[in-house]
Amino acid sequence: MRALVIGEVNAAGIKPTAASLVTAAVKAAGVTDMLLLGQGQSAQDVAKTFSGVETVFVNPADGENILTESLSKAVVALVKEHGYSHVFFEASSMGKSVMPRVAALLDVAPLSDVTAVIDAQTYVRPIFAGSIEVTLKDEEPVIVASIRATAFDACEKNGQAQIVMNAPFPETMRTRKVSFEAVKTDRPALQGARIVVAGGRGLEDEEGFKKLAQLADRLGAAIGATRAVVDLGLCPNDWQVGQTGKIIAPDLYIAIGISGAMQHIAGIKDAKVVVAINNDPEAPIFEVADYGLVMDAKAGIDELLKELN
Ligand SMILES: Cc1cc2nc3c(=O)[nH]c(=O)nc-3n(C[C@H](O)[C@H](O)[C@H](O)COP(=O)(O)OP(=O)(O)OC[C@H]3O[C@@H](n4cnc5c(N)ncnc54)[C@H](O)[C@@H]3O)c2cc1C
Asked: Disulfide check for 235: which of 127, 223, 225, 262 has CB 3.0–4.6 Å away?
């Protein structure tokens, strides 16, 4: 058995979550290769140290400009050439787009949102917004899965993988990505941030979210939000945490004016310490919070800022 892990690269280098995918792949298949989406030298330098990785294939195209359709075909070509038993993607926007295409091209059923690997064929994944965990056996000839990186520790970094430059992906599509514009922010990315402060409907208005931003900047934190406030247009879609937003695992999650609906909690199951501020002592968020403050959301932020300053 041998796995292939797809390692995503962005402007900052290889995504740290790639090291968690390697842990999952090594547990499933014993040994793994990695396809690196991007040619940055720093990404290669990091990827080749991942323990358990034997070969790092470097895709010569810029990671952020790869078209998922072409990438799917390139992954399938690698799988056929090397006979991989497992192909693991991160359960990210990119992974969620490419993984089912690869599964379809290989004529196997995809396995999404894996949170634990029991053995080569047995996996755990959440269903019903994380309220039930199922253990299932995947008997497909190639196991094509998306992995929730937050559920796995990063692999050790004392490996010595060989680097192989791939031939450019064949132009198989009539569509081309013309430009890619990343949102510019000085704050850490939501996925991967150590501290996240998140706001919900209890913050009420733009003034509430300005205060939330002040707190985030004071703590060097990323900002998260509930779907309710995204739908209200109070904050951008990419701040949404939860079942249909981002799954995160910060060391500290501060939920302000958030009720704690199960679809929101599904996104913070692996957060280490949860702090909640809510003026309703019966709010469900207090059931998952390690520390709770029953008070007005904006006043709570003012108090925290006063203490921090
Ligand atoms: C299929 C599906 C998928 C979904 N996916 C997601 C998802 O990914 N992420 C997500 O977040 N939601 C998701 N939802 C929506 C989810 O069910 C909730 O509606 C949403 O999370 C509620 O957001 P909220 O906590 O901001 O608002 P509310 O539930 O309205 O809660 C507001 C909270 O603020 C408190 N409050 C009010 N005023 C104050 C004040 N002045 N000071 C302090 N506290 C105050 C209230 O006591 C209350 O607890 C999904 C729903 C469905 C059906």
From this structure: 225
